[in-house]
Write a structure and sequence with these properties.
Elements lengths: L4 E3 L8 E3 L9 H15 L3 H7 L2 H13 L4 H5 L8 E4 L16 E4 L1 H22 L1
Helix pairs in contact: 1-2
């Protein structure tokens, strides 16, 4: 193993891993399980994650995608691409009451959804940075 290394983050494990990894091969699955557990049960995000698994949301998203099969951002550029995601225009993180409001949804392809999510995340980080 070349380059800088550190010990695996799993308690008691002394396996050396590159600085870019958190866990050794033996404990990588354990790290993923703990991240999942934190996201689903222990964090502020748990409520939102559980909502996205709810029957009400899955049914609404399915119906919305059937009624709106084309990505609205691609269509604005003159490209016809299948919509993969029913996306909240105003995130439920910002307004929980709009979580099941069809007027707050837009049909997006995975590429446009990932770009929008990245831009919103960057904007939140900038706003948080400016607060301090």
């Amino acid at each position: 193993m070349s380059g800088a290394v550190k010990q695996c983050n799993h308690a008691g494990c002394r396996e050396l891993v590159p600085l870019t990894q958190r866990y050794c091969k033996k404990h990588q699955l354990w790290g993923h399980k703990m991240t999942y557990k934190r996201r689903m049960h222990d964090s502020d995000e748990a409520k939102r994650q559980q909502f996205y698994k709810s029957k009400a949301w899955r049914a609404m998203a399915y119906r919305f995608k059937l009624a709106n099969p084309v990505c609205v951002k691609c269509l604005a550029k003159g490209i016809i691409k299948k919509a993969d995601v029913a996306d909240h225009i105003i995130e439920i993180k910002d307004d929980w009451s709009k979580r099941l409001d069809e007027n707050n949804l837009q049909a997006l392809c995975n590429t446009c959804h990932n770009a929008k999510t990245k831009a919103v995340k960057r904007q939140r980080e900038e706003e948080n940075k400016n607060l301090f």
